[in-house]
Every structure is written in structure tokens, then in C-alpha cells.
Write a structure and sequence with these properties.
Largest sheet: 5 strands, parallel
CATH topology of the largest domain: Rossmann fold
Order of helices and strands: HEHEHEHEHEHEHEHEHEH
CATH architecture of the largest domain: 3-Layer(aba) Sandwich
Radius of gyration: 20 Å
Number of strands: 9
CATH superfamily of the largest domain: Aspartate/ornithine carbamoyltransferase
Bound molecules: phosphoric acid mono(formamide)ester
Structural class: alpha/beta
Strand order of the largest sheet: 7-6-5-8-9
Helix content: 25-40%
């Protein structure tokens, strides 16, 4: 007997005609502005439900396979928490070396295996395009949790949801992305999504870590103003969202290049004196020195709240692809 939902947006019956039922989530390019409003509406409801009741049975009986070929704390544990908050359960494969991957099993075969046991698969993999390869092999929905330096769509969705919840608006913002814009897949996805909201984008990075040309061309095609800088000083005062990234040591071919740029920018209370009082600082985390812990108590430091918003967005996405939202 289905339990009665307390929310009009969270019906407990499975709706196979729901727009996202059975779909893969591979790229932010799949999302229109209307889609985003829908996702954020559901995520907002999820937030309310977690605050009111904690855990509920929307996905009772459903199983998520959480398949991570690369390290993760937030994405992996928030998808686990999301499924469990919704009453479902999880097959965790966070150390592929203990799975048959270590015996040489291919990604498509691993996916075909897991979908025998699970209703949805979340995949993080070091190679760009791996989520699309998995989706081709799978009959069940694949959610891309980061494919190399390609995309991290669920992070971009939670980033945008954070901005919406924190600033109360998404249109016409000045967003400054700082740090490793070459290897930081989260900024590639977020820049693409922000084109839907007429953002002005500033890119501040060392010369060797500039935003990739193909991302800039895609964003430019949408009529968005993008400006590149080597220093934060020129743009901090006008910034509504400062999105800080870690320099991704693991993606450098030559560690000497990493050493040259690793400490290029550090956000601390002194630097932030030049910023507005009504703005936010975000970071996908983990951080390794680019934001001083001395700044953590500043109300503009939104990066820990950002992690929590990720739970609600991932609850929404799981419910959507399983036809329950
Ligand atoms: N932001 C993010 O993807 O963090 P994890 O690598 O810990 O999942």
C-alpha cells in the first residue's frame, strides 16, 4: 500500500510518463532553463522533507549502484545519503581495485553486471566520455558523477541550486571563476549552465590553467561576455559569486608545472575586504590551501552549505530518473 505523500510535488506512485523517467544524466547540455527550474523545485521540496521528516519512503525498494573509479568524498557519500534518505539502498563500489575491474573487466561489462542488481548507476571515471560509453551499454539510467576533465553535471546543478538558494536569483550575475580552469570539470559544466541566465563570466587563472577554448567558444556562442584575468584584484569588487577551484595535481603530466602554480591564489579575510558584503564564495571541495580556514566563519563562505545543497539536488535527480518526481 503506497504511503500518502505530504508534498504535492512528491507523489509516491511511479510515473513512467514523467519527463526524466529512465533517462541518463550525462551532461549539463541536457538541461533547459525550464528543466532547471523543475529540478530546483523538486530539490527545494526535498530540502523541506529532510528538514521535516529526515527519511521517507519515496524510493523504497529501489537500489543504486555507486561506482567510483576515482576518489570521492562528497559525491559518493551524498548519493548514498540521498538514496537512503529516500528509503532506497546502495551497492557501494568505491574501491574498484576490490571489484572485478582489477581483473581487467571492461567498463561496459561492469555496467551490464551492476544493472542486473540495481535500478540506477552513478559513475565516476577518470576518462572523458566514459559516462556516455556506460550509458550506451546500459538499459538503466546512468548518472555521470565526473568523467575525467569532461563534465560533472550533478555538481554544476548543485552549484546553481546553491546560488539560487543563497542569493535568491540566478539572472544577470557576475560570476568569477578562480584557479584551475583547465582541469576543473566543475567550472566547465557551470560555465555552460550559466549561459541560460545571462551571467557575466570572469576567468582568473595562471596562464597554463586557462579555461579551455572549446568551453569558451560554446559559451560565446550563447552571447555571454567572458573576460580572462591573471589577477583577482580587478574583478573581486564587482563579483556576486566567487567560485574557487583546487589546482588538480593529479591531472598534471609534469609535477614541476604543478609546483609553479599551486599557490597562485589564496582567499582569506584580508583579500575579501575588497568584495561586496552581499556575495558568496563557493568551492566544489576538497580545498588544499586556496581558501584559508580563517575565512570559514564569514557569512559569505557558502562552500560548506553548498555540500548540503548537493544532497537535495541528488535526491531530486534520483527521484526523477526513477519516475517518482
Ligand atoms: N566536489 C566533489 O566532486 O567532491 P568529491 O571529489 O569529494 O566527490
Amino acid at each position: 500500500m503506497p504511503t500518502q505523500s505530504t508534498s504535492p510535488h512528491l507523489p509516491f506512485g511511479e510515473n513512467k510518463n514523467a519527463p526524466w523517467y529512465g533517462m541518463d544524466i550525462l551532461s549539463v547540455k541536457q538541461f533547459s532553463r525550464t528543466d532547471l527550474e523543475y529540478v530546483f523545485g523538486v530539490a527545494h521540496e526535498m530540502r523541506g522533507m529532510v528538514e521535516r521528516v529526515g527519511t521517507f519512503d519515496l524510493l523504497k525498494g529501489k537500489i543504486l549502484a555507486n561506482l567510483f573509479y576515482e576518489p570521492s568524498t562528497r559525491t559518493s557519500s551524498s548519493f548514498t545519503a540521498a538514496m537512503e534518505r529516500l528509503g532506497g539502498s546502495v551497492i557501494p563500489i568505491n574501491e574498484v581495485k576490490y571489484s572485478s575491474v582489477s581483473k581487467g573487466e571492461s567498463l561496459p561489462d561492469t555496467i551490464r553486471t551492476l544493472e542486473c542488481y540495481a535500478d540506477v548507476i552513478v559513475l565516476r571515471h577518470p576518462e572523458t566520455g566514459s559516462a556516455a560509453i556506460a550509458a550506451k551499454a546500459a538499459r538503466k539510467p546512468i548518472i555521470n558523477a565526473g568523467d575525467g576533465v569532461g563534465e560533472h553535471p550533478t555538481q554544476a546543478l548543485l552549484d546553481l541550486f546553491t546560488i539560487s538558494e543563497e542569493l535568491g536569483r540566478l539572472d544577470g550575475l557576475t560570476v568569477t571563476m578562480l584557479g584551475d580552469l583547465k582541469y576543473g570539470r566543475t567550472v566547465h559544466s557551470l560555465a555552460r549552465l550559466l549561459t541560460l541566465f545571462g551571467a557575466r563570466l570572469n576567468y582568473v587563472s595562471p596562464e597554463i590553467l586557462r579555461m579551455p577554448k572549446e568551453v569558451m567558444e560554446e559559451v560565446a556562442d550563447k552571447g555571454i561576455v567572458q573576460t580572462e584575468f591573471g589577477s583577482l584584484e580587478k574583478v573581486l569588487a564587482e563579483t556576486d559569486v566567487l567560485y574557487v577551484t583546487r589546482v588538480q595535481k593529479e591531472r598534471f603530466e609534469d609535477v614541476a608545472d604543478y609546483e609553479k602554480v599551486k599557490g597562485a591564489y589564496v582567499i582569506d579575510p584580508d583579500v575579501m575586504k575588497a568584495a561586496k558584503s552581499e556575495m558568496i564564495v563557493m568551492h566544489p571541495l576538497p580545498r588544499v590551501g586556496e581558501i584559508s580556514p580563517d575565512f570559514d566563519d564569514d557569512p559569505r563562505a557558502a562552500y560548506f552549505r553548498q555540500m548540503e545543497y548537493g544532497l537535495y539536488v541528488r535526491m531530486a535527480l534520483l527521484a526523477m530518473v526513477l519516475g517518482k518526481a
